[in-house]
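Notebook entry, structure prediction.
Reason for the run: the old model in the group folder had no record of what sequence produced it. Starting over properly, with the input documented here first.
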Amino acid sequence: MLPHSLALIAILAGPTEPVSAPIANIQYDITFNRETAARRRLAVEMRFDVTGKGDVILSLPAWTPGAYEMTWFARWVSDFQATAGDTPLRWDKLDYDTWRIRPAGAKQVKVSFQFQADSLDNAMAWTASDFAFFNGTNVLLYPEGRNLDFGAMVRVNTERDWKVATGMHGSVESGYREKNFHDLVDMPFFVGQFDYDSMSVDGLNVRLATYPADKLAGPTRANFWSQYRRLFAPQAAVFGETPYDSYTTLIVFSDSYGGGSALEHQNSHLGIYTAQGIGQDWIASVTSHEMFHAFNVKRMRPAEMVPYRYDDPQPTPWLWVSEGITDYYADIAMVRGGVIDSAGFLQSVSQNMQNVEQTPPVAL
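New structure, fully documented this time:
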């Protein structure tokens, strides 16, 4: 029995957060092919070395930075397994998105699960018969209570005639690698049959991937490229440099999607738009907005969100800076790049002001 004073200290301190045994040499494998597409699933594997004593405790992020809501991606996980070679390992769950694995002396462990990819949401994962997109936050586990500055490899296994597009460094053949978990989960993927091209813009490798194939094509695609490439120089001029060496725009067009939505990442963004928006300037405006987020929100962001935590909300009163200033400079880049004229700029800013004034205030 604890002395009363020690018991009181324990109660006041609250429960201690779990800490995983140390792990190293982490590799993630994501499989999406015609077989998994038929079930609208991604097959996920994580391999690692266990380099210390104790249980391995792995968590899946509960939210995606930029999408300021708690989602708990573990809800889409099924068929979770942990093995050492051919030997199944015991595991249980500590909470809704945390798994505790007992290595029993094993030095190499593989974890596998299925992820249901049927949510047409740019913070989520979604599949069709020939295509998938996903975010790292959906499928990449991390060791609980450990530093997230670990590098890892991501391999994508897919059909030989399908493509892969991402802002992550690497290739399908050699795998993709980033230096820490924050970067790993901040670079979404396209996998499957989609249109993909690139060009050099002011010394940057600039890419465009769009699904479905042939949806944004011909003169309409050429016109979008003309708008897209003219946004880089005026945005870089605001800060005197760019925070990336390449940039990738990922777009899904859907006949059933109302309006448009996009989510920023450090060297890419993922937009989902109604197919009726093809050829309209507002898609270029959204593109400019998400691109500027690479400077404002990714390169610099509210102090309450440094570093990112993936298991808890990180509320901040500064989203008006993150979104409002970004929106302003997105339109500035449009007019300075010659995508719109000054009259179009004033019309866009006026419309934004009216939208804000007409929106009832809410407490979040």
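Summary: The chain has two domains: 23-192, 195-358.
The old model has been moved to the deprecated folder.
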